[in-house]
Amino acid sequence: MKVLKLDHVGIAVEDLEASLAVYEGILGMKLHGTEEVAEQKVKTAFLPLGDTEVELLSTTDPEGPIGKFIAAKGQGVQHLAFRVEDIDAALAELKAKGVRLIDEKPRYGAGGARIAFIHPKATNGVLVELCERKA
Ligand code: ZN
Q: Which domains does the chain have, with CATH numbers?
């Protein structure tokens, strides 16, 4: 598989508006857009940063993955997303190597990306998202 770059860093936040006040108002970053991903029970905000992005994630449901993450660990870095050239090939290769996956098939991610998560037990405690984006 070919990892092309760090696509984005996902940060779980309790309050998207309050967090945007920090990232835009204090750090001077610019909001590219927000999107609600119903399947993940999450509202996202993307802030481009050089060749990568910061993704702020707030939950729309305490039982969603971000709600559970914040309940267990509090706010903070939730995942790293690595852009891959071909997510189907990457998942097939990881599966063949016996790597523990959360998603065996790609699903919809914010911005129209195709994404899949590798289990953090397979990556030394870091939740890794694979992300394929077509230009
Ligand atoms: Zn992400």
A: 3-132 (3.10.180.10)
- In Å, what is the CA distance from 47 to each residue of 11, 22, 34, 53, 116? 11, 12, 9, 5, 21
Whole-model pTM: value is 0.93
Mark the ranges of the chain whose per-residue pLDDT is less than 50. Answer: none
- What spacing in Å lies between the alpha carbon of 7 and ligand 1's midpoint? 8
Q: How far is the CA of 57 from the centre of ligand 1 (A)?
A: 8
Q: Give the pLDDT confidence of 107-130 residue by residue, as tens digits.
A: 998 888 999 999 999 999 999 999
What pLDDT score does 134 carry? 84
Measured CA to CA, the distance from residue 128 to residue 81 in angstroms comes to: 6
Classified as helix, coil or strand, 115 is strand
Distance from the alpha carbon of residue 97 to the mean position of ligand 1, in angstroms: 24
Q: What's the one-letter identity of residue 135?
A: A
pLDDT confidence of residue 110: 86
How far is the centre of ligand 1, averaged over its atoms, from the C-alpha of 8 (Å)?
6
3-state secondary structure (DSSP) of residue 112: helix
